[in-house]
Write a structure and sequence with these properties.
This protein is mostly beta strands. The chain has one domain (about 20-105): Thrombin, subunit H (Beta Barrel). The chain has no helices and 6 strands.
């Protein structure tokens, strides 16, 4: 008997953009931790981050995505996302954060 087609459901509500941008991230598990890495993809509702240091799944995390100002002033801009780590570790060296990027977390 031949198997039928496999249906894959997309659970993400926001479009993902394949952007490799530097990030700084922070979490607390009784001790303050900080790390750095790069985004693999970014959406309004979170990001996938590649790093050698990954917070544990379920951790509350704050990430700051860094990028240059589009007006070519050379100024560095930061946009923040506060959320939860939804997946982490393994051999991939990455973790996923579900949270919201919004205008209230924009600084330069």
């Amino acid at each position: 008997m031949r198997p039928g087609p496999i249906l894959v459901l997309e659970r993400r509500a926001a479009n993902r953009y394949k952007l490799q941008l530097p990030v700084i991230f922070y979490w607390n598990d009784g001790m303050e931790h900080a790390g750095g890495g790069f985004t693999s993809d970014v959406a309004l509702d979170g990001a996938l981050i590649t790093s050698s240091k990954c917070p544990p799944i379920g951790s509350d995390v704050r990430i700051e995505v860094l990028f240059r100002s589009p007006d070519r002033s050379g100024e560095e801009l930061r946009i923040e996302c506060v959320g939860k780590v939804t997946r982490a570790g393994g051999t991939t060296g990455c973790f996923g954060v579900q949270g919201i990027f919004d205008d209230d977390h924009f600084s330069h």
